[in-house]
Amino acid sequence: MSVTGTLVQSYAVCPRQAWLMARQMEPEREFELLVEGRLNQLEHYERSMKEIELPGMKIDRVRREGGRLVFSEIKKSTRYLPAARLQVGYYLLRLREEGIEASGEILVPKERFREEVELTPELEEKVSETVEKLERLLESYQPPPARRIRYCGKCAYAEFCWS
Ligand code: SF4
């Protein structure tokens, strides 16, 4: 089971959620989505797309600004903003490892919210820490116990955890 951007975000919300999600996720499907992805639809970026075919990344939208690649992660609400920053940071780190310098932005159209995300040394450290912890978690045969947090109400696993 490998780390994906979605799992990084989930882990930041609730490690148990990330564990449960990882058991349900189909990594090949995520990879296919990436290959077919919306990135590909923008002919400008077809070459870039080929260069960044990375499993575990599903980027919502990408454009070029100056010489730089800027991608957007679109969210439904600002509720999970710290987790979304980590997810975007994870993508930026993966892209950098592939030799692609990019920046990211989080868009929440419903709230007319936009935030730029750069891979600062602080964010990079946080992402690396999270990935390490997540990798350890994914090796475990048992999910962490359920702990009631403010995100439980909207979580897809609420019934499973609390019924
Ligand atoms: S319901 Fe709560 S404890 Fe269970 S996975 Fe979701 S966020 Fe975590």
UniProtKB/TrEMBL annotation:
Q: Which residues form the DUF83 domain?
A: 4-163
The leader peptide range reads: none
How many and how are cofactors bound here? Mg(2+) or Mn(2+) required for ssDNA cleavage activity.
Q: What is its EC number?
A: 3.1.12.1
Q: Which GO terms describe its molecular function?
A: exonuclease activity; iron-sulfur cluster binding; metal ion binding
Which InterPro entries does the entry mention? Answer: CRISPR-assoc_prot_Cas4 (IPR013343), Dna2/Cas4_DUF83 (IPR022765), PDDEXK-like_dom_sf (IPR011604)
Q: What class of enzyme is it?
A: hydrolase
Q: Which cofactor does it need?
A: Mg(2+); Mn(2+); iron-sulfur cluster
Q: Keyword Manganese on this protein?
A: yes
Q: Which UniProt keywords apply?
A: Antiviral defense, Exonuclease, Hydrolase, Iron, Iron-sulfur, Manganese, Metal-binding, Nuclease
Biological processes per GO annotation: defense response to virus
Keyword 4Fe-4S applies:
no
Family the entry assigns:
Belongs to the CRISPR-associated exonuclease Cas4 family.
Q: What does this protein do?
A: CRISPR (clustered regularly interspaced short palindromic repeat) is an adaptive immune system that provides protection against mobile genetic elements (viruses, transposable elements and conjugative plasmids). CRISPR clusters contain sequences complementary to antecedent mobile elements and target invading nucleic acids. CRISPR clusters are transcribed and processed into CRISPR RNA (crRNA).
Protein name per Swiss-Prot or TrEMBL: CRISPR-associated exonuclease Cas4
Species name for this entry?
Rubrobacter xylanophilus
Lineage summary: Bacteria, Bacillati, Actinomycetota, Rubrobacteria, Rubrobacterales
